[in-house]
Amino acid sequence: MILSGLAVLSMCIFCFGIEEMVCILLVSSFFFLKVLCWEFESESGGFFSVDMGGGMLVVLSVFILVCMCLSGFGVVHFNELKVVLGVIGIMLVVAFSASSGFLFYFCFESVLIPIGMMILGWGYQPERLQAVNYLVVYTVGGSMPLIYGLSLFYKGGVSSFVMSMSVGLSNNSLMSGEVFLSAFLVKLAVFPLHLWLPKAHVEAPVFGSMILAGLLLKLGGFGLFRFMGVLGVAWGSCVVIGVLILSAYGGVLLSFVCLRQADLKKLIAYSSVVHMSGVLFGLLSGVGLGMASGFLIMVGHGLCSSGLFYLVNCMSLSSNSRLVCLNKGFLLVCPSMSFFCFLLCISNMAAPPSLNLFGELLMFMVSAGFSSVLLVLFGAMSFMSGSYSLFFYVSSQHGKSGVGWVSVKSLSFCDTMLLSMHLVPLSVLFMFYP
Predict the structure, then answer these.
(1) NADH:quinone oxidoreductase/Mrp antiporter transmembrane domain location, by residue (predicted)?
(2) Residue 124's CB: how many other CB atoms inside 10 A?
(3) How far is residue 287 CA from its own chain's centroid?
(4) What are the residues whose beta carbons fall under 8 Å from the beta carbon of 334, sequence distance 6 or more?
(5) Per the CB 3.0–4.6 Å rule, which of 70, 77, 194, 209 could disulfide with 309?
């Protein structure tokens, strides 16, 4: 599984052109369907271990990286961009399949280097250096407790493999599972540790935004799944309850922020933070259905947000702006773009048929059995998610188009193909889920 993912990624990015990438991606997707089974597990040499969660994210990494490569086709220094994307893909595949805590931490933090290079090298905004500073300071600063805990385990003679850390935790009175939370909460970008995410999205190019929302946030969720499951973070602890209520309350507040956004990219970035609140609850619930809902929302959000960022890029190329007030009337100017915008918006609000709907239904089932307060907060988030998704669609597709637009009658073949590649898995993957 691990070797096949790396091989497909390397062939697609380093060796072939746009037609070969699409063919290999479509053929390889059929071989990866077997990971959609809870009994799936693969191990290689003791250093790598892939279960259903890790396998889903490995497949998502290969898929999003190839879509990013296709979206950046034709940009300046495209060959250098392919190298950067290849390095990011290899680090992500290794991180999602690593059994060693130190190997996971190395890839967990090292992926920031090529992402920062991507923002600095291909970003087009004057404040991209400040965005990279936000990204590095927040994520590296939040990861200090994680490397401290791993080093303390290693100093105490405990194996660095994740499954062995529960023994070291039970024998160490100075450590608790909550000490690892900050690293994953920052990378997951939950409220109020999310401030780096909108800044990075605004300054990043379209393929940079696709990887930030589609894959980088998933590192935090996967870290919670891999570490919290063996370190025994108690559901009833004050830290966990406080973190969940704060993130859910922040998700409701940021939903109102989405309704007041003037920048389309920031609107999608803040909506990502709202979705991550549901992912956090599912992964920290410690229940099988809760973890399943967290992974389904992560995969659905990775596909949906990546497609929305690419759609916003297509709209901004027509209007030369990302402002809501200048992106209007696409229903008359480009009906095919409105069609894709409608489908992505209903997927973002978890309407059928979409993978997000299945994930949110499981999340509501689990939250109803834990706390009525969380159930009310998640219900408010779900309602507001529909509100700002409809706001995004109505404000951009209806109304009178701006003066001085670049002439656009329909989407190109590459644009249609990329948007379809995001929508098809969103609509059909739930049928393969056991």
Answers:
(1) 102-381
(2) 8
(3) 22
(4) 318, 408, 409, 410, 411
(5) 209
- Whether residue 145 has a cis bond before it, omega within 30° of 0: no
Token couple for 301: 């959000």
| DSSP designation for 326 | G
Total Cβ atoms within 10 A of residue 141: 12
Q: How many residues does the chain have?
A: 434
DSSP 8-state symbol, 287: S
Residues 115, 88 contacting (CB under 8 angstroms): yes
Q: In this structure, what token pair is assigned to residue 289?
A: 């259905």
Q: Which two tokens stand for residue 394?
A: 């109505």
Scored b (16 or more CB within 10 A) or e, 164-176 reads ebeebbeeeeebb
Q: Identify the three-state secondary structure at position 190.
A: coil
**pLDDT tens, position by position, 299-317:** 888 888 888 998 988 888 8
| Cβ contact 100:45 at 8 Å | no
Average pLDDT, the chain: 77
CA–CA separation, 428 vs 141, rounded Å?
39
Contact assessment for residue 8 and residue 61, using Cβ atoms and an 8 Å cutoff: no
∠ Cα 372 374 375 (to 5°): 60
- For the record, the structure tokens of 116 come out as 């920062």
Cis ω before 198 (30° cut-off from 0): no
Main-chain phi, psi angles of 50, to 5 degrees: -120, 120
CA–centroid distance for 210 within its chain: 8
- pLDDT, tens digit, 9 for 90 and up, residues 70-82: 877 777 777 888 8
Q: Specify which residues 43 forms β-bridges with.
A: 49
Counting other chains too, the contacts that 25-30 makes at CB distance below 8 Å and 24 or more residues apart are 25/62, 25/63, 25/66, 25/421, 28/4, 28/62, 29/59, 29/63
With contact defined as beta carbons under 8 Å apart, do 277 and 247 qualify?
yes
- Reported pTM: 0.86
